[in-house]
Amino acid sequence: MDVPKMWDLEVLGITDPIEKENESLLEEETLTHFKETIRLCEDQRYEVALPWLAGHPALCDKYDAAESRLRTATKRLINENYLEAYDNVFKQWESEELEQLKSQSIEIMKEGAFELRCWASNDSKEDQDKQSVYDPIGFTAPALLLPKLLMQEAWRGKIGWDEVLPVELEHKYRLWERTMHFMSKCAISRRLFAENYDDFTVHIFTDASAYAYAACAFLRCEFKGQVTVKLMAAKARLAPMKKSTIPRLELLGATLGARLAETVDSILRTTSKTYFWCDSMHMLKRVRYLHTLRSNLRKRFYKEYLGELVRSPKVASRRKIISPGEIVIVESKNPNRMNWPLAQVIELFPGKDGVERVAKLRLASGEIIRPLQRIYPLELSASDHLIEDHHGTDIAAQNPGSTATDVLKEGKKSRWGRPLIPVKRLNL
């Protein structure tokens, strides 16, 4: 609590008449200034001048400070022999009319509400050889593998994107570039299937090395003893920068071949036999091990687990569980399930197919109709309660010191292990 503020005149409702007159005059001057300076712009927007206070000191001038900084920067450029290069940059900008391009771009983009703030340019000469080969099918995968390896080697050496390549890497790249003209002499038939064929099969080949792994798909067509083979697609990937063993890379190659086979099958849209070829003994051992493991798990499932399966109450048909007169739980919008209301089933309504899907319920507030998917039976139904009550009465008769409720609490538990509380019927 601010004690001095409690004794302020304004808080007590006492104001100085002179200050009140000054405030009213200031409000009138503000309104007059608004009416005199408001104007409608060409883009249908209103513009008002800023209200300057009378007698306010003029804003300080930064001309001297800016001139001093300019002289300091010029002196530094002269001492470091950068003044001529700095002047050449601006002359190049003037020759290319970059200033005009900048202002025109800002005006054009401003019309679409895209205000340009930052500028960055790229050299078109550097982009001539980047991604110049487009081959989604993978016919040129062997030829494009070498530049990918060189790129990975440059990345491993932490060489920047705009830095000059080492002599050894540049020499390897130039050698690869000189051999690229041989690709123009390679001819690939556009026709995949033969004109006539009796049967065809798909063959997937996979292989791996310490630097890369690849997979290719071939189509083999057979017609009257004559066989034609066509390359369908190929994929190649570089080995990870983190060193991996050859068996692991062969597994990656097999995965790549499996994905390639799925793509080929989706394109052919016909059922055909697919063969996978791999010369890795480790891969063959792994396939045999997986086959043996799968068969052992299947046998164990049949012998040990299948006979112990119990029908879950969640999967059981609620049409057989719920019957008229049962006490059920009705689902509501309340996220807390403990607050869902209890109701009594009055009637079940079957559909045209004879299956009961809707029930009429009686709540404490009235009667409602709900689908069976929104009705949940209690863990202990009324019939079970009567049976347990009957057994409990017999046991209580044998043991005068015990009651049916005590027997129920000691013996009956839910599937989650919690003791069940006897159901209390509602007087509805």
From TrEMBL:
It comes from the Eukaryota. InterPro entries: DUF5641, Retrotrans_Pao. Residues 286-378 form the DUF5641 domain. It holds the Pfam family Peptidase_A17. This is DUF5641 domain-containing protein. It comes from Trichonephila clavata (Joro spider).
